[in-house]
Amino acid sequence: MIGIVVSRADPASVHIGDHLLELDDWGRTTDDTRPDGEGGGTVHRTPGFELRTFDDLHLDLEGVADVFADPEFVVFASKHAGDTGPLLTAHHTGNFGPADHGGADGELAHSCANAQARVLDALREHAPSGYDVGMEGTHHGPTDVGAPSMFVELGSGETEWDDPDGARAVARAVLDLRGVGPYRDRQVVGFGGGHYVPRFERVVRETDWAVGHIGVDWALDAMGDPADDRDVLRRAFEQSGATRALVEGERPDLVSAIEALGYRVVTETWLRETTGCLLYTSLMA
């Protein structure tokens, strides 16, 4: 089952939630064990999904998976804010450095790289005319969800947050996740680049590798010296279910720290060449 989080504090989230309920046949039950503003009250269920509504913003909802009935992963239906025009996007959550917007310092939520790859495909399929689709680096809270999770977002301003076509596209993409698992056998961690990550998105789109956490340039700068923050780097691999990394740009200190932890840095060429091929021991060394 996939848990869907809708936040009353987020107009786009409410709008996406309305379209989710319109697009499928949902049953309604009442959860009297917790307050309405904390995911109790009316609960909506349809095969493969459970939708609950909260008063707080998503990034403040730590431990939210415990509210659901043992979800495989959690989807936060959310707005995206930025100077990026009409945009549908997805990303994982966590803080490589200080927690300026929810979560804890140096902590990362469990990613769901396979589900993110699938939802990006679905967003591209359903995106209305004029909307771009993108993937972002890891940022903001929550960091202790209790299950793998990701944000799926409608942006980038009030016009889009109120756009029924955009909200419906996000809702359709989320529902297309029915039966999709959070992980696949081939997952990498990403490092480097700008906040929007076209190179890593290209890897997801054009190879059979999925990408978990992505520490973009500004997040790595916030983390500090990689040699002093190996615990954060280790968490990026552990919370991504990955043993390999793709690094954008020249970052020899980062590469050394990754290799010192026992992980491997690979190239985009290697990811392409291994797509569709068995990974023999010689390739995995």
UniProtKB/TrEMBL annotation:
Molecular function GO labels: D-aminoacyl-tRNA deacylase activity; metal ion binding
Region span, Disordered: 26-47
Keywords: Hydrolase, Metal-binding, Zinc
Keyword Lyase listed: no
Superkingdom: Archaea
Biased composition (Basic and acidic residues): 26-37
Name recorded for this polypeptide: D-tyrosyl-tRNA(Tyr) deacylase
Protein source organism: Halococcus salifodinae DSM 8989
Lineage: Archaea, Methanobacteriati, Methanobacteriota, Stenosarchaea group, Halobacteria
